[in-house]
Design brief:
This protein is α+β, with helices and mostly antiparallel strands and 131 residues long. The protein contains three helices and eight strands.
Length: 131
Amino acid sequence: MKIHHIGIATNDVDSLLKVYKLKRDDIAETVFDNEQKNNLHFIFLKENNLWIEIIEPVDKTSTISNFVNKNQSALHHIGISTDNIEHENSFYSKLPSNFIIGKYRLTVNSFGGKIKTLFVAFKGMITEFVQ
């Protein structure tokens, strides 16, 4: 299992960047996710060989709007690389303590172009599988 990225949700991108000693110029790419109604800001941490995804709701219909209203800025999920998203969906949908939140397709050039994602919740912890 390889960690692909860490997803942090916030309603204040600039303050979050400041906490981690990052700047807007460190953002490699920003993608608007029309389906989930979020701005996704991607930063590559070279020294860790790891991406950070900053998730910012665009309005109250966003999938993370309630989350950031409650938590302001917080770890939202851990992204895990996979070669077979359908296998992950089949495996995790059969486990009794898991809940499949959703499957999405998105173009993220920083991640190589078109990607597939699967969000799974396990007792409050969200994992996003990325293919």
